[in-house]
């Protein structure tokens, strides 16, 4: 397991997206909501928390709101990376262990390795 896999494995249990910034919701001054479900709020009408009265930066808010989508994309890319690494490992193994006298059985293994690599590049499995 890579450090990236460990990070993704730790990112569980969050409120599903889509998240949106709502600068005022009732008596609350700003927060992120998934529909009506609060994800993170900044305080009441008296004070923002923890920003000490400063509203959140809009660019930061957009990044925070994108967190569920970024998690999904990172998970998909990690799976694709694994598929490609597995296909490449198979090809490297074939190359490292080849014999010029491999014959038909060896050639079949090489062909399957190339087929798996091509399928991985297309996003599927052979």
Could you please describe the fold and organization of this structure?
- The protein is mainly α and about 130 residues long.
- It has two domains: about 5-70, no CATH class; about 75-120.
- About 50% of the residues lie in helices and about 10% in strands.
- It has helices spanning about 5-10, 60-65, 65-95, 105-120, and strands spanning about 20, 30-35, 35-40.
- Strands 1-2-3 form a three-stranded antiparallel β-sheet.
- Strand 2 and strand 3 (about 35-40) form a beta hairpin.
- Helix 3 packs antiparallel against helix 4 (about 105-120).
- The chain starts with a helix and ends with a helix.
- The model has no long low-confidence stretch (mean pLDDT about 75).
Which structural class should the secondary elements be placed in? Answer: mainly alpha
* Helix fraction by DSSP (H/I, runs of at least 4): 40-55%
* Spatial gap, N to C terminus: 24 Å
The ordered H/E elements are HEEEHHH
The beta-strand count equals 3
How many strands, which pairing sense, and closed or not: the largest β-sheet? Answer: 3 strands, antiparallel
| Arithmetic mean pLDDT | 75
Question: How much β-strand is present in the residues?
Answer: 5-15%
- The coarse overall form would be rod-shaped
**Assembly classification:** single chain
Domains counted in the coordinates: how many? 2
Q: What count of helical segments does DSSP give?
A: 4
- Rg, nearest Å: 24 Å
Give, in spatial order, the strands making up the sheet with the most strands.
1-2-3
Uncertain spans: none
């Amino acid at each position: 397991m890579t450090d990236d896999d460990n990070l993704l494995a730790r990112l569980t249990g969050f409120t599903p997206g889509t998240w949106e910034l709502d600068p005022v919701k009732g008596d609350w001054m700003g927060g992120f909501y998934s529909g009506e479900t609060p994800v993170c709020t900044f305080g009441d009408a008296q004070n923002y928390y923890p920003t000490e009265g400063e509203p959140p930066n809009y660019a930061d808010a957009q990044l925070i709101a994108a967190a569920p989508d970024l998690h999904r994309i990172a998970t998909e890319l990690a799976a694709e990376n694994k598929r490609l690494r597995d296909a490449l490992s198979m090809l490297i193994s074939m190359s490292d262990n080849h014999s010029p006298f491999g014959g038909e059985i060896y050639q079949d293994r090489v062909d399957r390795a190339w087929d798996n690599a091509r399928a991985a590049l297309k996003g599927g499995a052979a």
